[in-house]
Amino acid sequence: MYPRMQLLGRRSQALPSLPQRQAKTGALHSSVTHVASSHPLSPTPAADSIAVSELLSPSKQTPSKAAQTSQTRRDPTALTTFAGCDGLGAYTHAPESFPRSRVISFNDSYVTINDLYPKSSVHLLLLPRHREKQLLHPFEALQDPTFLSSVQQEVRGLRTLVAKELRRQFGKFSAKERIREEAMEKALESGQDIDESSLPPGRDWSKDVIAGVHTHPSMSHLHIHVLSIDRHNACMRHRKHYNSFATPFLVDVQDFPLSEEDMRRRKKERWLERDLVCWRCGKNFGNKFKALKEHLEKEFEEWKKE
Predict the structure, then answer these.
(1) Residue 133 CA to chain centroid, in angstroms?
(2) Hey, which residues does 224 pair with through a beta bridge?
(3) For residue range 68-115, what is the model confidence (pLDDT) as tens digits?
(4) Beta 250-252 vs 209-214: how paired, if at all?
(5) CA 223: distance to chain centroid?
(6) What mean pLDDT do residues 270-282 have?
(7) Crossing angle for the helix pair 289-305 and 239-246, to the nearest 10 degrees
(8) Which helix (H) or strand (E) holds 23?
(9) Is 6 helix (H, G, I), strand (E, B) or coil?
């Protein structure tokens, strides 16, 4: 889901002189840079990249991969370079290093970001910063009732945020929203005070938001997906992308804690290989992703008009 981090700096090919080497002894330099990409919650488009570099002095030896992994499992904050499946750690480690177009908000306990490769019109990730939970499988982490309650509370807030963004983007297409807007306009034209309770309710966009964790996450750090239900995005490119959000592979955070007998705990279940079924009308496309993708374009337009 996240690209491998790029190294910004490389050592010169020419060997430094002895005085130069001595001057560099013990020096440690690292930097994190990020240029944000455009996103529905970010009006400013830009190219998107995350880069982390770490230059060690010649007198120090880089720890082995096994040693780094062991240290990180004990203390997730010990990791200062983030690559591949560890990519989300860059956000929890130094969220202030990223622009608001990527990191929406953060505090001591959580970081909320726009997904780098969104699978819906709006797709956020909630990243817990709890050191003892960060590298646990979500099924294990969310068994803790106190932690689960905290996560569910954060998710409720994000569902509201996503719903507001959906209204901002697509409210002008919605029939229910149009009825409400017309009633408001009539009230304003007549000079009446607007009583919200007397207006048509409009569209409940919160019903178009889903939130959950994957049964087999592709990233090391614990993360919770909060996204719109439309599954409409250019980054939705493969069968596994769709099924990871349209089958029990995505477990709703409200379903936790899971019982030991819950079928979603079964490793042998091959959710991603299931037939492709339209989330809106239920039509089965078998393994024909291209046909599903074309169908979803039509469903997306109809969904906006509800």
Answers:
(1) 17
(2) 126
(3) 555 545 455 565 678 899 999 999 999 999 999 999 999 999 999 999
(4) antiparallel
(5) 7
(6) 97
(7) 50
(8) helix 18-24
(9) strand
